[in-house]
């Protein structure tokens, strides 16, 4: 039995598919990397640009923020403003991204560091699950669920890969 080499068309189609997946992952990494700098600099247009207009952010312990305006308003809440005044850094880890057509799930960690006097302390370490969809303007967040890491099923469940 003789094996046939893939045709040029088949090879090009496979290359296009691999390149498309790499570009999608890169776009998703950029979205997640945008979050920290935009919340730390209180940039409402920047932070809302990564969500769909009806996107949801469930940070745990609070009522989930539903819609771009609620996510924007978070930046001006007293709790967030106090963090910014102290000095803060929201750091996202490199997530594991699973693509499925025009939707994706990104799973990873985040850390919130805040300045206290002359020192930086870790305020929060969390598990994150980002759900995204390909919109006309590119990839956007449909929901983000964030829970402090603890010995609970809830925080561990967010880290389970799809």
List descriptors.
seven-stranded mixed sheet, 162 residues, 5 helices, 7 strands, alpha+beta, elongated, Nuclear Transport Factor 2, Chain: A
Describe the 3D structure.
This protein is α+β, with helices and mostly antiparallel strands and 162 residues long. It has one domain (8-158): Nuclear Transport Factor 2, Chain: A (Roll), CATH 3.10.450. Helices cover 38% and strands 38% of the residues. It has 5 helices and 7 strands. Strands 1, 2, 3, 4, 5, 6 and 7 form a 7-stranded mixed β-sheet that branches. The chain is elongated. 20% of the residues are buried.
Concise description?
This protein has 162 residues and is an alpha+beta fold.
Layout of helices and strands:
Elements: H1 8-40, H2 44-49, E1 51-58, E2 65-66, H3 68-74, H4 78-86, E3 88-92, E4 96-100, E5 103-116, E6 119-135, E7 138-148, H5 153-158
Parallel strand pairs: 1-7
Antiparallel strand pairs: 1-2, 3-5, 4-5, 5-6, 6-7
Termini separation: 39 Å
Q: Which strand-content bin applies to the residues?
A: 35-45%
Mean pLDDT, as a whole number? 94
Name the quaternary structure: single chain
Shape: elongated
Order of SSEs: HHEEHHEEEEEH
């Amino acid at each position: 039995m003789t094996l046939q080499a893939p045709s040029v068309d088949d090879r090009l189609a496979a290359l296009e598919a691999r390149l498309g997946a790499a570009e999608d992952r890169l776009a998703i990494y950029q979205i997640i990397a945008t979050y920290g700098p935009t919340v730390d600099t209180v940039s409402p247009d920047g932070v809302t640009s990564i969500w769909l207009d009806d996107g949801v952010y469930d940070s745990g312990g609070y009522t989930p923020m539903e819609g771009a305006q609620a996510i924007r308003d978070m930046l001006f809440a007293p709790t967030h403003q106090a963090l910014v005044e102290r000095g803060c850094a929201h750091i996202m880890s490199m997530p594991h991204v699973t693509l499925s057509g025009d939707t994706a799930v990104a799973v990873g960690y985040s850390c919130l560091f805040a300045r206290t006097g002359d020192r930086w302390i870790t305020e929060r370490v969390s598990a994150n699950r980002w759900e995204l969809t390909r919109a006309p303007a590119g990839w956007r967040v449909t929901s983000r669920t964030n829970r402090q890491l603890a010995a609970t099923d809830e925080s561990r469940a967010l880290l389970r890969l799809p």
